[in-house]
Amino acid sequence: MIRIPFEHSYATQLPQACAAANPDTPAAPRLLFWQAGLAGELGMDTSGVDDATLAALFSGAQLPAAAQPVAQVYAGHQFGGYSPQLGDGRALLLGEVVDTAGQRRDIAFKGSGRTPFSRRGDGKAAVGPMLRELIIGEAMHALGIPTTRALAVVATGDTVYRDRPLPGAVLTRVAASHIRVGTYEYFANRGDEAMLRQLAAYTLQRHYPQLQHAANPYLAMLEAVCQRQASLLAQWMHAGFIHGVMNTDNMTLSGETIDYGPCAFMDTYDPATVFSSIDERGRYAYGNQPAIAQWNLARLAEALLPLLDAASMDDAVAQATAVIQGFQAHYQQAWLAQARVKLGLVDAQEDDLALAEDWLLMMHRQRVDFTLAWRYLADTLEGEAPRLAGLFAQPAVLHAWLARWQARLAVSGRPAALVAASMRAANPLYIARNHLVEEALAAASEYGDTALAQQLLAVLAQPFTERPGLARYTQPASAELALGYRTFCGT
Hints:
Blueprint: H1 9-13, E1 18-20, E2 30-34, H2 36-41, H3 51-57, E3 70-72, E4 76-78, E5 81-83, E6 91-98, E7 104-110, E8 125-126, H4 127-142, E9 149-161, E10 165-175, H5 181-189, H6 193-207, H7 217-239, E11 241-242, E12 264-265, H8 289-304, H9 313-325, H10 327-342, H11 352-366, H12 370-377, H13 386-389, H14 398-410, H15 416-424, H16 434-447, H17 451-460, H18 479-482
Antiparallel strand pairs: 1-3, 2-9, 4-5, 6-7, 7-10, 8-10, 9-10, 11-12
Helix pairs in contact: 4-16, 4-17, 5-8, 7-8, 7-9, 7-10, 8-9, 11-14, 16-17
């Protein structure tokens, strides 16, 4: 039996923010994936534990000792419209552990059955969407992007009914916490200032302890959340990642990416790209994501107004507004810093932003693959331009920009081979290409075959290292497959 040293600070300190609930008992749990490395980070000793035991413990068939499952309540703006109560309709927080690095992390089920917040849902999840969360989360983690991760995926042996019958699954998610902007909205819009203050004090202590003694701690926390989200969004944009459903209940106070529903990575570079089947108006298109993050943070600022140290409400509004207005500067700074690394630049020059933006504009006009263009750019420093030129319908348009870039690089005087190596360490070759993800999910869902998913995870674990025999993992989908590609929430 695995001993998990669960603690329950959230449920104990914020009892009004959650409700006790138990997972459903699965019919025939079967372990699909187990992340032994992550288990080690969490201080779990699984030596000698067989797959059947793991499947039972991480599906709800047999709760780990000391687990005290609760469903968390929150509200949220979904596609701009406010829903006063959402909550964990199919998720249960089992508890928290302090990992080997001293960080407190949540361990939670997803897809384990109805909770007090399920509304009319069944609380279940299917194999395909849970594997998507596993694969995308691990891809993001390997890219160095803050993210929740999947510890386990277990097939339940139950059937989940959506547009058709599907095999059921439970995912065990690990997160810095599950505190969302929507958690704050829930108490703020109910006028529960006492509970709002408790939530803010808990968040401050858990995620921003260095700010507890600031002159205006909750304003300082808002500023810190803005900075973390600005950095996160810059990383999303540089990876070509599209979250797909950036509702306020899907934005964490910790700064981690959470809830991999209708998400995808962009092939052809186009800021208007939308993959989500439910985003009919393009609210959460790739290019809109930074502005939506700022909009979400404004909702957090509104919720925090009663807690700010201000002479009046007008003063509180002015303080919060100044912080939110500063988001764009934080984002631009983070985006440009990351662009410099991707372009091989080690210092800062005034024209760097224009250089990077012109590179993107050229890619957009030529409808070039986003990931490969960044990756193949390094080749040109070693006299190997064909791979990059081959991405462009009109390769001649590259010449003028490449001359500007190479002149810019010459300022630092670094050897070309060193610059190329640094660029390859910052520009991935392998990402979770949509057609490869769908191929893996279909095999697992339709035939119970997880081999393709295992292979894809192995490739994505080393996204920056080119390896022989993996060419198929570098290529975008065919035009036929890419046309009209849509992803779904999986709810």
